[in-house]
Amino acid sequence: MNKNRQQQLRDLPSVSVILDHMQSEVELWGHDAVTRAARGHLEALRAAIQSDESVASDLSIIQQTIRDGLTATSQPALKSVFNLTGIVLHSNLGRANLADAAIDAMNRVAGSANNLEYDLEKGQRGDRDSHIESLICELTGAEAATVINNNAAAVLLTLNTLALGKTVPVSRGELVEIGGSFRVPDIMGRSGCSLVEVGTTNRTHLKDYANAIDADTALLMRVHTSNYRIEGFTNTVPESELATLAHENQIPFVVDMGCGNLIDLKALGLPHEATAQQTLAHGADLVLFSGDKLLGGPQAGIIAGRVDLIARIKQNPLKRALRLDKVTLAALEATLQLYRNPDELVSRLPTLRLLTRAEDSIREQANRLAPKVSSLLGNQYGVDIASVSSQIGSGALPVEVLASAALSITAANGGDEPLRALAQRLRRLPKPVIGRLHNGALLLDLRCLEAIHEDAFIEQLTELPQ
Ligand SMILES: *Cc1c(COP(=O)(O)O)cnc(C)c1O
Questions:
Q1: In CATH, what number is assigned to the domain containing residue 328?
Q2: Ligand 1 pocket, Cβ-based, cut-off 6 angstroms
Q3: Together in a domain, 130 and 155
Q4: pLDDT (tens digit, 9 = 90+) per residue, 114-169?
Q5: Whose alpha carbon is nearest atom 14 of ligand 1?
Q6: What is the pTM of this model?
Q7: Is 169 helix (H, G, I), strand (E, B) or coil?
Q8: b (16+ CB within 10 A) / e for 167-187
Q9: Residue from 91, 184, 226 to probe ligand 1 pocket by mutation (most atoms less than 8 Å from CB)
């Protein structure tokens, strides 16, 4: 080892000297974490000196590096992002944004004891479903209801309760896969019932179901084909006919509605989607739907319908394993409360507010933002305004699209590489910006950028990392 190296190694401060000068960091992150970080950094410096790299052994620089490292690793891994993908209910980006009322309700119960399973009238143990069941019944017209972790769990729990060891006929056209990990046949298998496929992919008739029913049949099930649609020569059996057939055979008719809608979307200028009320009125004995899709609430699964069936579902031991926690329950209750006042629903519920934003207002916003974004990105990039189609997302109405406007960013040299690089830099912002690459442009669909977040969005671009 040459003299210079030895000198450099000797010049490195000791761990205890570093810690002496980092008392506020020790207080913030703890002695062990700062010690580990200091040791790690000194080791890296020694290795660099051994391989003749030039290193900065200044105490203040060493401290700063350690501080930066600790700051970086203590950032939350789960962050909020700007969803400019144009998909309002994006399953990878957390689906529905909660309403203020729901967030307030979560805060209220999170840090305090509460009556989750305590009957305040009687002063004795209560039922956690009680806070929400009558509300669901009021909004859906169901006799009874229960809530669990998500809609996949609702399907699992319902089949496990009502069809264990028995068979369930399902139309071939409804054996869908939703988001990769939820496949109807797989869930049916895990719930302990056997699937009997009826009909063909494009056409299923009432007689297909009728022929499939025998002594082993537990129930009839319809599954909303959420994320695709078969067009052309098709036939599906109306819900009311399936309900009648089921009831003639003394078995229940269950509908997995997927997105779960409670209001007339057409009246809001959105594509039609059946409501839970309608499906129950068509004779479904149970409807199952998600809390965080069109409903606009937290992740949850809602089961509503006949009181005797709900009672059996509540008694299934799996219910305990799939139940909701107090924070989610509070958010779901607050979300459902909003539905009691339809006049204010759209303004109060972010999901509907975003879905119903007028194209004109989004375009105006694009006109406002384009010059600012353009000047912040510099002359390597051009920023135009493009007409795009937003999607509802989460398997709700997959084919229907909503007219919207996007900032369309192109690279001055016409290449895709600078766009990919820009997309990555945008994802590295403190509040990452997620757009989509399409036909040689990076599209930032502004539908989900509400006016109140606009300034924060622009401000952040001034610190766009290289
Ligand atoms: C989304 C969906 C599910 C799964 O719901 P999660 O709430 O995501 O568990 C099940 N069935 C259908 C038809 C769906 O669209």
A1: 3.40.640.10
A2: 150-152, 155, 178, 182, 223-224, 226, 256, 258-259, 290, 301, 395
A3: yes
A4: 999 999 999 999 999 999 999 999 999 999 999 999 999 999 999 999 999 999 99
A5: 258
A6: 0.92
A7: strand
A8: bbbbbebbbbebeeebebeeb
A9: 226
